[in-house]
Specification:
- The chain is an alpha/beta fold and about 210 residues long.
- It folds into two domains: about 80 residues, Zincin-like, CATH 3.30.2010; about 110 residues, no CATH class.
- The protein is built from six helices and five strands, in the order E-E-H-H-H-H-E-E-E-H-H.
- Strands 1-2-3-5-4 form a five-stranded mixed β-sheet.
- The protein is elongated, with a radius of gyration of 19 Å.
Length: about 210
C-alpha cells in the first residue's frame, strides 16, 4: 500500500488482494449488477467459452461447471463480503481465503461453494493482476505521488491556507471502463486506466480535493 500526505491529510493507494478476488468471483458467477454502485467488468475478462479457435487447441475455460446455488442468496452474501472488504480497517492484511474449506465463509455457504469451485482460477487471475499493479506502480511511483500532492498543494495555494484533516482510500482495480466510483465512506475504486493516465487522473482528482480541502 502506498501512502501520500501529511499529519493533516492522507491518501492511501492499493490494489487489495481480496477485492481483486471478489471481483473475479463476481464475474465468474455472472453477478455483474451487484454492489452499490455496481462496478464494470474486470479486465482482462475471465474466459467463459471452450472450443478450438482457428483450428488450434481448445481455449482454456475457467468455468468448469455451473454452481448449483441460490442466486439471490449468493448476491446477498457476495455484497456483504464486498462491503466488509472495502473498509481498510476491516480488511485482513493476509487474505482469509484459505483452502480447502474456506472457513471464513462457514456462515455464508452459497459464497463458500462459489469460492471452492473457482478458487484456483481466481487465484491465478488475482496473482497476475496484483503483480502487474505492483510492477507498474513501483516504476511510476514518483510521478503518481506528485499527481496527488501537486493537486492538494495547488488547492492550498488558492485558499492561502493548509489543507484540513481528511483521508481518502483509493482502491485501484483493473476495470473495463475508465472512471472512479465512491463505494464506501472515504473509499473510492479507481480504474487502472484512469490511474495510469496522469492528465485524466488530475482532472478527476482536482474537484474531489476542492471539496475535501
Amino acid at each position: 500500500m502506498f501512502v501520500e500526505g501529511t499529519l493533516r491529510w492522507q491518501v492511501t493507494e492499493d490494489c487489495p488482494w481480496d477485492l481483486l478476488m471478489a471481483l473475479c468471483l463476481r464475474d465468474l458467477a455472472g453477478l455483474t449488477d451487484v454492489g452499490d454502485p455496481p462496478l464494470p467488468a474486470i479486465i482482462p475478462a475471465v474466459p467463459r467459452t471452450e472450443g478450438a479457435e482457428g483450428g488450434g487447441a481448445p481455449r482454456r475455460s475457467l468455468v468448469r461447471h455451473t454452481v448449483q446455488t441460490d442466486t439471490d442468496e449468493l448476491r446477498v452474501q457476495w455484497s456483504n463480503w464486498w462491503h466488509r472488504t472495502l473498509i481498510r480497517e476491516s480488511r485482513p492484511i493476509v487474505s482469509a481465503l484459505r483452502p480447502p474449506h474456506f472457513t471464513v465463509f462457514d456462515r455464508e455457504l452459497e459464497l463458500q461453494d462459489l469460492v471452492e469451485e473457482f478458487y484456483e482460477d481466481a487465484l491465478a487471475w488475482t496473482s497476475d493482476r496484483r503483480d502487474e499493479y505492483i510492477t507498474f506502480s513501483t516504476a511510476a511511483r514518483a510521478r503518481q505521488a506528485m499527481d496527488i500532492v501537486d493537486v492538494v498543494r495547488d488547492r492550498e495555494h488558492v485558499l492561502r491556507r493548509q489543507a484540513g484533516s481528511f483521508r481518502l482510500d483509493m482502491c485501484v482495480m483493473p476495470l473495463a471502463e475508465k472512471g472512479a466510483w465512491i463505494v464506501a465512506p472515504q473509499t473510492i475504486v479507481v480504474s487502472q486506466s484512469l490511474r495510469n493516465d496522469p492528465a485524466a487522473f488530475r482532472q478527476w482528482f482536482t474537484p474531489l480535493v476542492n471539496v475535501l480541502v
